[in-house]
């Protein structure tokens, strides 16, 4: 689909396309309430609570006042709605500020100022220096005589370097006064979100140019939110406005990510719901039986002889309402609140601020912090992620001669300096390509110093290197490129630029020597994109050796080549190039095909070698996280040898003989098949050996393997802890993430550039590095950090703490609700199984919303171990990875504790205060007091590190319980009038509370002491060492646990046993599947072995691909 934009037609396009009003609001004043309620009630749990609340409006069946459910429900909905409204109001203020900004447009040939929201498609917008671009514009003119302007795109793509934009050739040279009257039409695609592409055509109407078609690209546009820099003025025609701009189209709400813990909580909630239905059915039947039998014998029970048709449903429905609190109504809001706090802890972490740039870490996604503690695979980019992305020119090979090998620095190589001084033809051509085969913009300061604005760190390194070697790129004046060599000026006319693409892996320029008139093609690119296109007869073996040698050193390589073009050849090719460049359909593919025709028969001049150093702390970070059982995959576009060397340097893989690299290569299906077969066979054989095995695959072989042997690649992923994938495309990176996710692994992807965005968004957790390639990755990610080394703290500290805290909070929320529910059930056995509530409505509402919620919320401050201990012993992350703190087993423990405490509270309270000794409200308050006291001690027992805030929450909340009930007891109209005063003066009340605490907490304390003393987990061991203040020498062994593969890998016919490679897991002594190992004298602890994988009892089957 296309749109036609008529330039400077004041009314014609107004009705066809929308105006420039920006709206990012989710709601309006009228639809906020219904839309928000609809969203909230789209969740099953909210529908369930609404049903319960509605049933409580039926007086015949409700055992308590409806306010006990409606109150918390309305409160929770109000909190969620208020948060949504506040967020939406902030979006409204931001929109209003942008919409009401004043801008200049041309109207009827006259410049006038209007609000940005009133711009329409086809209007000519006038910008001054430092103005923000209000919509997507096609440039028509600038203050620069050559039609250039500079824009800052950091708000759009995060890249801070200025970019050059150029006026279309059809508009070049038009006087600024005539721009007010310009007329024409732009044929362009419908709005899309691709900020890298704009394939359109421009046709100006007479008297400017008589219907000549001028192709437009993204370089002829300036997009919304960019800023005009270093340019006095620029004007352009609006082509996309409002929410139809490229930025507006890219906005959107990302798909919510479901954490492993959220999935487990949903399953446990479902189990409790089924248990609740069973209890309701049993008690409902028992109640109806008792009503029809025993109740007839009791004179004061007045059931009617005949009831309505629904009589049998009344008691079951009463029990359904009574048991509805089994599922805590506040758990969703509580989890959302604490997860927001986890995200803030990451934002506030002073230890994760990059001192070099001042960049702080940021959590964009507040819902998945606990997943950080369960990461099993990290997929990482190389350049800019593991390395600094600071490119330094180190060596080169020109026409088979190596420079810089002796000193490690080509700038100090006397032989190279002599060749330059002597004017060696090959060397001069080599330096010329380094200087002008790029998109770099030289900027000359007032003092005469030249700096360079480059979009690529490689280009920046090459241009600076050429300048140091006396080939200085001094000026880019429209199509004239000026360089100075040894004080002599050389000028080239830039005829065409063949831009770099990830498919072609090279870029070229066609230039014309202004002195001789000769036309040259200058090219640079990857070795596989240059060397195969050398002219017939040229020997390229020396260049291949140079590439391999430099790659072995971990250096980045580029091959440089050139050839002279005949004028006729260029003219013929130029027509094809312009035709492809003006195509609106498949322009990129057609351009690649045309470029292929001319980028051939090249004379290869040499190879450059650029160093990209590792970031500080990368080897230590990877080593620590590997000890934590996390597997690493490197996904890079670099050469195989370069990637392997970087992997060795950063502890990604171990050198021989401890480590072993298995190569997967091939250009055909058969070759890849044989390679895969060999690697899989080797890996299966080595599963019994403690060897660090990794596989290496290039993009071509990977594409064939993913297409034809996907199940084999899946088995390979399970068998290997480490992988190095070279020459991979962004889409292949995303495919590999999806492959690991399909095996039910928790994945984290980390990168720093736009080519990593798809991988980051595909992973369970996406981490972006705010690097030199801009902020695209950081903006697309769930978390952004300044350097790779902060990943260690993000996972081990924030991820682990978040997992532990959420595990406790979720299970405690169920525990406190089950305690009160079980007491209600027990009370039904002495109240004729009638569904009568022991507690009044006010007490139930206060219990759920206030008495038990505040203490648990401050559990977000709890730390079972200090940060230093966690960082020193990363192996304990296995507990989180294996889900040891939240699973059916641990939940059963909390379920049993709630049942036990309910029995204790009920029996002691009833025996102390029932049987005509007290009124029902008194018994109710005693039982409620027992619950509150028990939960205060449970919170105290489960808290590992106390702060003043935690003490205030636990004991202050207990004091608040008595204060609130004293207030209610002082109100004559209250059902609790004088009760709390009488109870507090009665010694038997305090004796009862003491008995409840002793009976309820005694066995819990004894069990905890037994486990801590005789069956301590590794965490208990570390806690004990922290309290004693002694060093921790080691921490027990990790048992090998194979992970089975359930499906055969077709079509590979390999019959070896399918087992996981040697995996070592910590002996989790509190697991029923673990084998206990005693601590011998003199060796209190054993060392963890730094290998990975989860317990076999928690291994998960690989899904079908």
Account of the protein in words:
This protein is α+β, with helices and mostly antiparallel strands. The protein folds into five domains: 119-244, Calcium-transporting ATPase, cytoplasmic transduction domain A; 265-327; 331-343 and 797-1016, no CATH class; 359-384 and 618-790, HAD superfamily/HAD-like (Rossmann fold), CATH 3.40.50; 392-613, Calcium-transporting ATPase, cytoplasmic domain N, CATH 3.40.1110. The protein is 42% helix and 18% strand. The strands form seven sheets. It has a nine-stranded mixed β-sheet, sandwiched between helices. It has a nine-stranded antiparallel β-sheet with strand order 17-16-26-25-24-23-22-21-20, sandwiched between helices. The chain has a six-stranded antiparallel β-sheet with strand order 3-2-4-13-5-11, with no helix packed on it. A hairpin with a 2-residue loop joins strand 21 and strand 22 (488-498). Helix 1 crosses helix 3, helix 3 packs across helix 25 and helix 30 (920-942) packs antiparallel against helix 31 (948-969).
At a glance:
The chain has 1105 residues and is an alpha+beta fold. It is built from 34 helices and 35 strands. It has 5 domains: 119-244, Calcium-transporting ATPase, cytoplasmic transduction domain A (Distorted Sandwich); 265-327; 331-343 and 797-1016, no CATH class; 359-384 and 618-790, 3-Layer(aba) Sandwich (Rossmann fold), CATH 3.40.50; 392-613, Calcium-transporting ATPase, cytoplasmic domain N.
